[in-house]
Amino acid sequence: MSQDKEKEVLKLLNLVRTNPKGFIKSHVNDYLKSNNMTQNSYAKSLQTDLKKTEKMSALQFSAPLTKVARMHAVDMGELGTVGHTSSDGTPFSDRLRNKAKAKGTIAENCDYGNDEPLHIVMSLLIDDGIKSLGHRKNILEPSFHWVGIAIEPHKKYRISCVMDFAEKF
User: Fold this and answer.
1) How many CB atoms lie within 10 A of CB 142?
2) Which end of the chain has fewer CB atoms < 10 Å from its terminal CB, N or C?
């Protein structure tokens, strides 16, 4: 079941990347209304950013990145932890470069507690409370061509989603 949701997350990521302005109409506006976020400053900045964002290439599914994302999601889930460092102290950059053989620009997004693909993607795009907007920037980074997505149970937040991005291999 989580594989269907992972595929749906990829579909949504690619919708926002390949048609950012259309994504506002097809998903963002209704989402903000139904979640009472129309006045949220992070949500408003998402709308502004998407209006200025040029269309970019779709992300391609990567089995090695998905394997690494799943390892991290399972690790965090079993221990109830959050963040980009594995329980053994390995930073995400080492996981992506050493285990998945990712090259060039890399990044990782983690989301907690959202089990619906749209909620996962919108949460990371809005990036409420994250001043750097790092998750949004990762999703909208045109140099990324590959992604691995893993949705796994989480001891504290019930569910987590890890997205690992890479420019190339």
Assistant:
1) 12
2) N
